[in-house]
Amino acid sequence: MADSIVAYRYAKSLFDLASEKKVIDKVNDDMLLFKEICDDNRQFAVVMNNPIVRHDKKLGILKNIFENRVHDVTFSIFNVLTKKHRENLIYPIADEFQKLYNQQKGIQKATVTTVSPLTDTQRKEFISLIAKTTGKDVILEEKINPNLIGGYVLKIDDNQVDTSIRKKLNELKLTLA
User: Fold this and answer.
1) Same domain, 78 and 129
2) Rounded-to-integer distance, Cα 91 and Cα 74, Å
3) Can you give the pLDDT at residue 11?
4) Which residue, 70, 90, 137, 175, has fewest beta-carbon neighbours within 10 Å?
C-alpha cells in the first residue's frame, strides 16, 4: 500500500479522534509544530526517516521534544506509529491532517511565486481572486524566484496558473524550433 494512502488513513483516524475529543485545533497546531521542526531541522527529519535508528531511540527523541509540548491525542499517535515502526509517516500524516483540517474549516491554501515580494495591494488582489474562485478563506504563501523574469506562478491544490515570462519564452522557443 502506498505511503500516502496509509498516511491519509492515519490522519483521518487522528482527525476523527481529535474531533470526538474536541481538540482538533490543538492537534492541528501540534501537527504544524511537528512539520515546522522537521523543516527547520533537517537532522531530526533524517533520523525519523532512517530505518537504521532503533525505534526506542526515535520514541525517546519524540518524548524529549514533544511530550510536554503537544496534546495527549497528538503524542498518542506518535507513540502508536513508533511502536508500529512507522515514524517515517508522521510528516505525511501531518500533511494529510492539515488538508482535512483546512477542508473542514473552509480554508484554501495557495502559493504564489513572483520575481519580487508582493505589495499589499497585489497580496489583497490575489487573496480576493482566490476567495471568489474557491469560496473559502485563503492562506497565501509567497515565494520569490528571480528566474521567472516577470509575471507569477499561482498554485492552488493541483492547479497551476503560470503567467511568467520564462514560461512564455520557453513556449516561443518551442514554436521556433
Assistant:
1) no
2) 13
3) 97
4) 175
- Residue 119 gets the label, from left (phi > 0), alpha (psi -120 to 50) or beta, of beta
* pLDDT tens by residue, 21-71: 999 999 999 999 999 999 999 999 999 999 999 999 999 999 999 999 999
Order of strands across the sheet that contains 137-144? 137-144, 107-114, 152-156, 159-162
| Tens-place pLDDT, residues 159-171 | 999 988 888 888 8
| Grid cell listed for 7 | 498516511
Please tell me whether residues 118 and 99 are part of one structural domain: no
Domain with residue 34: its CATH number is 1.10.520.20
Domain of 73 in residue numbering reads as 3-103
The DSSP H or E segment spanning 141 is strand 137-144
> What's the total number of domains in the chain?
2
pTM here? 0.82
Which residue, of 103, 137, 165, is where some domain finishes? 103
